[in-house]
């Protein structure tokens, strides 16, 4: 684990990003899970497991999963045997697929998915023992608004955990990964999903989004304590944690 230092970092605001991203995920929802596992060579499952393990020690009873998509992380979190997991997302077609997966796994009494905006949560303050988000935080239109809301709904002492893509920095892996991520991945995604923008958006959004110390410092700026981050799989993604 790497302890973050404080700094003043400003996250930009992209006009109409929320509607554009929501429409994009609704469009690719049918192929989303298949492409996730294919393009990550299945490693995404182990990343989610690491997030689950990171919050397991606090034994959370009520968990909120932001940008839950098709519910993969919410389903993984059910292994912690909480009282309830609530997942929210703006893309209704992604949620429909998630609900079907939850039902087929016999978890409908443990996991509820609903349409909701991570930057304007409907829940009361101090409602959840843990808040999580996997590969969705970079899609927030206003990052600080989303982090502020996550902090607000957490109970004192509660844990916030994030999985998000980062950028490998060690040569030659960084070069190999950059070639795959920026060229091959968009091509494969386009062929399978028949969407010319979704898997071009992925590397573009990662390039623009802060990671490692920069993102950790933004978490600190928004009030989180004991902020740490840990690069996974040579830095392809990183796991961040903070406490209220």
Report on this structure.
Helix 1 runs parallel beside helix 4 (92-104) and helix 6 (173-193) runs antiparallel to helix 7. A hairpin with a 4-residue loop joins strand 7 and strand 8 (237-243). The chain starts with a strand and ends with a strand. The chain has one domain (2-170, 211-243): Rossmann fold (3-Layer(aba) Sandwich), CATH 3.40.50.150. The chain is built from 8 helices and 8 strands, in the order βααβαβαββαβαααββ. With 244 residues, it is an alpha/beta fold. An 8-stranded mixed β-sheet has the order 1-7-8-6-5-2-3-4, sandwiched between helices.
Secondary-structure map:
Elements: E1 2-3, H1 17-39, H2 43-56, E2 62-66, H3 72-77, E3 84-89, H4 92-104, E4 111-115, E5 128-134, H5 143-153, E6 154-165, H6 173-193, H7 198-208, H8 213-221, E7 225-232, E8 237-243
Parallel strand pairs: 2-3, 2-5, 3-4, 5-6
Antiparallel strand pairs: 1-7, 6-8, 7-8
Helix pairs in contact: 1-4, 1-6, 6-7
């Amino acid at each position: 684990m790497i302890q973050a230092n404080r700094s003043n970092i400003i996250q930009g605001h992209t006009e109409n990003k929320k509607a554009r991203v929501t429409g994009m995920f609704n469009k690719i929802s049918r192929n989303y899970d298949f492409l996730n596992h294919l393009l990550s060579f299945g490693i995404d499952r182990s990343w989610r497991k690491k997030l689950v393990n990171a919050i397991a020690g606090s034994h959370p009873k009520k968990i909120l999963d932001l940008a839950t998509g098709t519910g993969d992380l919410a389903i993984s979190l059910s292994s912690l045997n909480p009282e309830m997991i609530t997942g929210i997302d703006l893309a209704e077609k992604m949620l429909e697929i998630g609900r079907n997966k939850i039902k087929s796994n016999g978890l409908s009494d443990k996991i509820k998915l609903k349409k909701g905006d991570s930057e304007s949560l409907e829940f009361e303050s101090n409602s959840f023992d843990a808040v999580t988000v996997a590969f969705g935080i970079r899609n927030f239109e206003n990052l600080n608004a989303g982090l502020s809301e996550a902090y607000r709904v957490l109970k004192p002492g509660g844990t916030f955990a994030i999985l998000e893509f980062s950028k490998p920095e060690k040569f030659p892996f960084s070069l190999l990964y950059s070639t795959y991520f920026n060229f091959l991945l968009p091509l494969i995604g386009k062929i399978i999903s028949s969407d010319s923008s979704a898997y071009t958006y992925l590397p573009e959004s990662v390039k623009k989004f802060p990671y490692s110390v920069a993102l950790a410092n933004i978490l600190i700026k928004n009030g989180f304590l004991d902020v740490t981050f840990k690069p996974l799989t040579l830095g392809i993604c990183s796991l961040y944690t903070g406490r209220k």
